[in-house]
Design a protein that fits this description.
The chain has two helices and 17 strands.
Length: about 210
Amino acid sequence: MKSPHGAAPWDSRADHATAISPDGQWLVMFGGQSAKEGGRKWKRCEDTWRVKLEGYTVSAWHRIGDLPAAAQFARSSGLAQWLAPDDGWPFSGWLLTMGGHWTPPTETLKAKTEDTDGMKAHHEETEFKAYNDVVGLDLNSLSDKWKVLEASAPWPARDDEAVSVTRDDTILIFGGGTLYGGGGYHQDVWRLPKASEAYKLSHGAATEL
């Protein structure tokens, strides 16, 4: 255990994203949703944090660029990926996330979690939107702002999908759902070869959110 619950400077949360850089030096965490009052009140998190793993201390966490209003939807675990072209698996500095969902910034849950019908009704009544965008953060630049790399990708909008980046700089995305609380699942697989080239990932690329 690196640190006990509650010791890190960021709020406890669920449905966030984390990634370790290809060189194994950095851990980055962002997004998700935080609960209070025993899970009754939920808040969407827009913050992004990173920490160096070697010589880790709780005080070493550093807050960097927040997800702006256009991207403050919960980003589920596993959706953060580092891009690294295959010339020796270098640390590219670009962190990508894609898809996910938006619900209102704050949410009050009146039903108890063991109330199946109440939870289902809550999910059906809550405004929900799935996304098919690709957003990136260049951690090698002086800017801490997330940038839109693709506002509307050709694959259908989805949440809780799986994403992977291969050694030859190919992005793979598959699965995911379209309904709050689960459901409407996709069974497709999409591939983008030479992703760094496709998104022109150099310093200052893309459009700031």
